[in-house]
Design a protein that fits this description.
mainly alpha; 8 helices
Length: 232
């Protein structure tokens, strides 16, 4: 069973591991660049983090719903194709599903690129340097100017979070859909696959939660006052 479903299982583990590394531990540290500029603007003050949490849930929901438009491109196993006795057509369909799941696992691994990108967002530890930083200045270079300009309007962290949440929901839903297509529809195989699936979810959540402490520590120490491209 493991040999057949290993790729979607790996995808689920990586997806939850990377997601729990960032959300909610690092997201809770984010602050708006416009914080304290206008106390009447609650969206940039006390409601900024709750707004990000809502955006994450919306992105995750849209990602899960988008699964319906992607997974059907992988041919279903069809009725009567249970196990190794499904005939040549069933084996070919299962082979295509297996190939799709392998790409899915690599796609989940690519989500690791979100980890350093979230370090570019404004956090509570970087507010001291941001208060005296002119985002319109080119002194910090092109990357500094672009990142700071997008962050000042809170565009960068919100777009990044939506993409992060969308891929989380999409990869999770696709992995769930692919697992039953790779094994026979008998109770014995389905129970074993369900056990492995639940274990992968729990392990991903557990490892991601533990690694989040390391991630937050690194994120607070690898930059100048928490913001890599801001020049004092």
């Amino acid at each position: 069973v493991w040999r057949r479903i290993r790729w979607p299982i790996i995808s689920i583990f990586l997806t939850f591991f990377i997601t729990l590394t960032v959300f909610p531990s690092w997201i809770a540290k984010l602050e708006s660049w416009k914080q304290c500029e206008d106390y009447a603007d609650r969206w940039s003050n006390d409601l900024y983090v709750p707004r990000l949490i809502v955006l994450f849930n919306l992105g995750d929901l849209i990602g899960r719903m988008s699964c319906n438009f992607i997974v059907p491109t992988v041919a279903d196993d069809g009725d009567g194709d249970d196990g190794d006795n499904g005939g040549g057509a069933g084996r070919r369909r299962r082979k295509r599903t297996h190939s799709f799941c392998k790409k899915l696992a690599w796609g989940s691994f690519v989500r690791v690129m979100f980890l350093p990108l979230f370090w570019l967002c404004t956090t509570s530890s970087s507010s001291s340097s941001l208060s005296s930083y002119d985002y319109r200045s080119n002194d910090g270079g092109v990357i500094s100017y672009i990142t700071a300009s997008l962050s000042y309007a809170d565009i960068y962290p919100q777009l990044l979070l939506i993409a992060f949440a969308f891929t989380n929901g999409l990869f999770t839903a696709m992995s769930y859909v692919c697992v039953p297509r790779l094994i026979p529809s008998t109770d014995e195989f389905q129970k074993v696959a369900s056990t492995i699936l639940n274990f992968a979810i729990g392990l991903g959540l557990f490892c991601g939660s533990l690694f989040s402490f390391v991630y937050v520590r690194w994120g607070s120490s690898v930059s100048v006052d928490g913001y890599p491209f801001v020049q004092k």
